[in-house]
Amino acid sequence: FDAKAQITEDVGPGIVVATLGYWRQRNNGTVNCVSSAEFVDMGHAPTFTDNLVQVEAIR
After folding, report:
1. Among candidates 32, 38, 34, 36, which has minimal Cα distance to 52?
2. Alpha helix locations (H) across the chain?
3. Contact 23, 39 (CB under 8 A)
4. Non-local CB neighbours of 37 within 8 Å, separated by 6+ positions
5. Where are any strands of DSSP class E within 1-59?
6. pLDDT, tens digit, for every residue of 5-55?
7. Per-residue b/e over 16-27, b at no fewer than 16 CB within 10 Å?
């Protein structure tokens, strides 16, 4: 999904926080599209806690 980012001191370096409010019809998807509902093989643990994201400056 596409979202506008704002850099603040509230979040540490290398961390991206996506809050509610990004709607599918306006942002090419939602934050939920970057995570899976599947469980891992070991321990049946969820897989949605960590995601690799790419942040780019728009010029």
Report:
1. 34
2. 24-27
3. no
4. 48
5. none
6. 888 899 888 888 877 655 656 666 677 676 777 888 888 888 776 777 888
7. eeeeeebeeeee
Backbone angles phi, psi at 25, to 5 degrees: -70, -15
Q: Name the phi and psi angles at 39, rounded to 5.
A: -110, 150
Structure-token pair, residue 18: 């996506």
Q: How far is residue 6's CA from residue 50's CA, in Å, rounded to a whole number?
A: 20
Residue for token digits 């509230």?
A: 10
CB 51 within 8 A of CB 38: no
CA distance 45 to 37: 10
Give the DSSP letter of residue 11: S
